[in-house]
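Ticket #273: bound-state structure for NAP.
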Amino acid sequence: MSPTSPAARPLPGSFRSAAVIGGTHGLGRALALAARDRGLRTVVYGRSAAPLAEPGPDPDGLLPRALNLCDPQSVRTASVELPSPCYVLWVAGAFLKKALVETTEDEVEQLTRLLFSGPVLFLRRLLAEAEGPVHLITIASSSSWKRRERESLYCGLKAAQATFVRNLVPELLAAHPENRVTLVNPGGLAVPDFHTGLALDFGAMMDPGEVAGIVWNIAADQRRAFTEVQILRSREPGSEGTPEVSYGARAPQPPEEPATAAGEPAALPIQHH
Ligand SMILES: NC(=O)c1ccc[n+]([C@@H]2O[C@H](COP(=O)([O-])OP(=O)(O)OC[C@H]3O[C@@H](n4cnc5c(N)ncnc54)[C@H](OP(=O)(O)O)[C@@H]3O)[C@@H](O)[C@H]2O)c1
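RESOLUTION: The complex was predicted; output attached.
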């Protein structure tokens, strides 16, 4: 188990800044505020990151930069200037629960841009500009390996994100021996905006601020080039929603429901995040 205290712990080395792609709301915002608390100059990217009248931090001490990952022109032109060495956090996302045949061509295009091709193209620019070591912290999802229903596009794109960053490690190491990648697969978070329209028990889901503290503690302790971690919510009665940390990748769950001894599908509920 890793530490679960959200207390701000000093970060190793000479890291000066953090760029949070999707740092305006939800888990990204919590990660950005925790980066600020650890003394990092913290840039938050998002569509709602309104430019300030005066250059400098917003009232929360964060530096907003407008970026729309679904707009190729915005991905090409948003500023990637950051003091090195820096943390880069890939967090932006949105959820889609729909059978593929009900999904419009535009929804496929937009979600693919938001969850995969937009961040990949933006990361390409950020990495090309970076002058010193980069520690990439990627928020994928337990949906990258769990059995889900009517979420094939979302799950497929989250698995693509996870596989992409694992395979980025050798070239990042070749570029700089101190480059690092942390791949985080969280389970369900108490972020109602992400689960719009779904009737969920947010009291049994993980607190984004607590998860953000865990992620930063894992990043601070990381010595190897790559770490993959699962942060899943406890379902134990009395401690529902408590984050449980385990290391390493998980094998994908088979798509069919587990069979009972009699060979009939077990009447198990589908796991929701
Ligand atoms: N919530 C969960 O249960 C859960 C579980 C596992 C993994 N995750 C993953 O965690 C990440 C964060 O989710 P969250 O729950 O914190 O969601 P959230 O509160 O809805 O935040 C999403 C973030 O993504 C940004 N974003 C959305 N569309 C964008 C676009 N077109 N261009 C640039 N930025 C965009 C948003 O900023 P703007 O609105 O300012 O654009 C916001 O900062 C996602 O990748 C999600 O897949 C979530």
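RESOLUTION NOTES: The beta strands are 17-21, 41-46, 63-66, 86-90, 134-139, 180-186, 226-233, 243-247.
TICKET STATUS: resolved
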